[in-house]
Amino acid sequence: MRRGWMGVNVVGVLTASSLALASIAGGSVGAVPASDASARPDQSEQPGQPAVATVTGIVVHTATRQAADAAGRRSVALTGVPAAIGQVLAGGYRLIELDEPIAIDRAEAISQQLVAEGLADTAEPDYPRYESAPPNDTLYAEQWNLSSSYHGDPNEPAYGIDVESAWNITTGSSSLVVAVLDSGILPHPDIVNRVVPGYDMISSPAAARDGGGRDSDPFDEGSACGGNPSSWHGLHVAGTIGAETGNGTGIAGVDQQARIQPVRVLGMCGGSATDVADAIRWAAGLPVPDVPLNATPAKVINLSLGGPGNCMANEQDAINAAVAAGAVVVVAAGNESVDLDSSSVSPANCANVITVAATSRYGDRAAYSNFGSTVEIAGPGGEQVDNPDERILSTLNSGLVDPDLTAGGWVYRQYQGTSMAAPHISGVI
What gap in Å lies between CA 117 and CA 252, rounded to an integer? Predict the structure, then answer.
């Protein structure tokens, strides 16, 4: 109950639980058939959210309390609704609290009028905020890695990242770019609209399979080698980070807004550390000989790759330069089940990176995951024991050697490994 124009009211504070990162993971690949999960209902309206949104306050920034009073009195005249100056907010803001709710568009018009008349430096409605409902992506229930339950069953716990708690705070920013240094990208419908221009940094024409060396097209030509099929590994990693969320199809990505930048460094039978080092520099917006500068430098660089040997001087210098330029470098710990404190695996053993181990649905270290004090964090990488659904589901292509670009080629399949863990961390960052 208000106490008149000069009365004071308590303003509620929105809180949300922090994002649980204790179980994040990913690395070795082995596809299983595409999921046949049934569609989830469209939940476009949040629980408790009114059909027509209204507000009961206008937030003004003024130099003095007297100026705020004048803005409040003017709002009463414009709305015809009794009001009071409520809690003084941080940063010099004050809340004009209305005794009755008014429509948002009306509150916006009144706010603009207060500024136009010089009664406030800024004015805007105290917009409502709601708990984020689960997205309507048809396979979201299978993404235990993003949840805290298995297939949406509260009686079946899973050590995912509980991403919905984070989405109540933020869903990301489209101004941020996450570079995926991997096998390249394909135009999967669930990721294509999130992609910004990348680069093909493979210097060997034979490995690139595209008839040339480095070029501006990071299209994944396939990585088939020694009788093994192409993995479309980069597409799977990109989907975990940023598949379109809430589009009524497929999966949800960890980050709903950030842009994905494919940087191709893995081709037929793998890639080279020197190409990776140059790709790290390029992704961070640094110069690389005979390659144009990156017009949209990445703030996060995901490396779901690795190999034997110590961290090369070239690799370490590239990482240091990228971090100095403002990027965060995230690296998969590797899938050899070895202690990184006594084993040489790079770039997992490089300094100045976030090294990511893999966990199972049950929160254990996945049996394949490397470990040791070099590891900073772990995330869902999955581990198939009896059920392939306990791997990580993401975007993929059905082509065995070359990509299948027909409608039937765009699928969702489960992989496991520290390669799958790392993009969870990149998406969170």
Answer: 45
